[in-house]
Design a protein that fits this description.
Blueprint lengths: L5 E4 L3 H13 L4 E4 L2 H11 L3 E5 L7 H9 L6 E5 L4 H9 L4 E4 L4 H18 L5 E4 L2 E4 L4 E4 L2 E3 L3 H11 L6 E2 H9 L8 H14 L6 E6 L3 E6 L1
Parallel strand pairs: 1-2, 1-3, 3-4, 4-5
Antiparallel strand pairs: 6-7, 7-8, 8-9, 10-12, 11-12
Helix pairs in contact: 1-5, 2-3, 6-7, 6-8
């Protein structure tokens, strides 16, 4: 099944490409649909984490797309429109939109809104507190890591970093993204902190015959990889 972070439904190709560019810099995967009906189909196929939805669309307008999505899903939706009337804002929110931006908008502000809505959505979900792979178990209730039957007591940030990476197996994260996700949005420390914690995790836990590893992606960051 295909998955993506952000689905953009907008008939303006220039806007779609601009949003893709800025979100891509944040490590978010994107897909674009230029018609309302195509966007609804893409939503059902891609299961995105968030939808950026224009109001004025060919095929099916944004209001109808919003209503169709809300019949089956609570996926966060940010409405994009050239209209700025209070009525349209209220209508969008009443139909179930999570946020609303009027064109023309600042791309950096849009990225900030996207990240804020995603954080709220993720915070409202009941988090998975235990992850298991062959030879590895991470339990965040007890803050314990078990490797090949041996329990390890690790510093909290090492466990949280391992848990986050393992919970997104196969996905590459930059050092800055890991600092934001594990240390917090307001952390202003050196990004080399991530390198130090990764080094310690490898030294303590990794085995030659392990079916998993924390892999360095040169020039980008790190990812948890299952063989």
């Amino acid at each position: 099944m295909k998955t993506t972070d952000i689905l953009i439904i907008d008939d303006d190709k220039n806007i779609g490409q601009l949003i893709e560019l800025y979100l891509g810099k944040e490590g978010l995967t994107t897909a674009v649909a230029y018609r309302g009906d195509e966007g609804l189909t893409a939503f059902e196929e891609l299961h995105p984490a968030l939808v950026l939805l224009d109001v004025m669309l060919p095929g099916m307008d944004g209001w109808e797309v919003l209503k169709q999505i809300r019949r089956t899903s609570n996926t966060p939706i940010i409405m994009l429109t050239a209209k700025g009337e209070t009525f349209d804002k209220v209508l969008g929110l009443e139909l179930g939109a999570d946020d609303y931006m009027v064109k023309p908008f600042d791309a950096k502000e849009l990225v900030a809104r996207v990240k804020a809505v995603l954080r709220r959505a993720r915070a409202s979900e009941e988090p998975e507190r235990e992850i298991s792979f062959p030879g590895l178990s991470i339990n965040m209730k007890s803050y314990q890591v078990v490797v090949d039957g041996t329990a390890f007591e690790l510093p909290p940030k090492e466990i949280e970093l391992l848990f986050f990476l393992a919970g997104h197996a196969g996905r590459v994260f930059t050092r800055e993204q890991l600092l934001e996700q594990v240390w917090g949005f307001d952390y202003f420390g050196d990004s080399r902190t991530v390198d130090v914690h990764i080094k310690r995790l490898r030294e303590k836990l990794w085995r030659e015959d392990a079916s998993w590893q924390i892999k360095t992606v040169w020039g980008v960051g790190y990812k948890f990889e299952v063989k």
